[in-house]
Amino acid sequence: MTNDDSKTRRSATALQYEGKQAPTVTAQGHAELADEIVALAREHGVLIHQDEELSKLLTKLELGEQIPQQLYIVIAELIAFSYVLQGKFPENWHNIHQRIDIKS
């Protein structure tokens, strides 16, 4: 692999979150397989987050492995943000800063 190839190497890791345990790795791939994982996720309405550094950390995990505790906060923030993007809010949530337009 040349240096140029390593800069453009595509990878994808899919996580599944059941709400009772830490998210687990359900799919991983590089190059064409990564493209297929992303395409399949989009087909099913799964939101995609692109972050090269996070991807590097997640590709070190094995299929079925839970994310390490060090990633709990960042993954929790991504899950929470994805809920907001989908218009989902906790039952007792109050938009006290009026930063999110929940009527759209």
Keywords:
single chain; 104 residues; alpha+beta; name from scop; two-stranded antiparallel sheet; 4 helices; 37% helix; disordered N terminus
Description of the structure:
With 104 residues, the protein is α+β, with helices and mostly antiparallel strands. It is 37% helix and 12% strand. It contains 4 helices and 2 strands, in the order H-E-E-H-H-H. The longest helix is centred in the last third of the chain and has 14 residues, at 72-85. Keywords: Bacterial flagellum protein export, Cell projection, Cilium, Flagellum, Protein transport, Transport. Required for formation of the rod structure in the basal body of the flagellar apparatus. Together with FliI and FliH, may constitute the export apparatus of flagellin. It comes from Rheinheimera pacifica.
Topology, pairings included?
Blueprint: H1 3-7, E1 11-16, E2 24-30, H2 32-43, H3 52-58, H4 72-85
Antiparallel strand pairs: 1-2
> Percentage of helical residues?
25-40%
Question: Helix/strand/pairing class, anyone?
Answer: alpha+beta
Report the principal-axis shape. globular
CATH class of the domain at 3-67: Alpha Beta
User: Approximately how much beta-strand content do the residues carry?
Assistant: 5-15%
Number of DSSP helical runs: 4
The helix-strand sequence is HEEHHH
Distance between the termini: 47 Å
The biggest sheet amounts to: 2 strands, antiparallel
CATH superfamily of the domain at 3-67: secretion proteins EscU
Name the strands of the widest sheet in spatial order. 1-2
Averaged pLDDT: 84
Low-confidence stretches: 1-6
Region (Disordered): 1-20
Pfam families: Bac_export_2 (PF01312)
Function: Required for formation of the rod structure in the basal body of the flagellar apparatus. Together with FliI and FliH, may constitute the export apparatus of flagellin.
Protein name: Flagellar biosynthetic protein FlhB
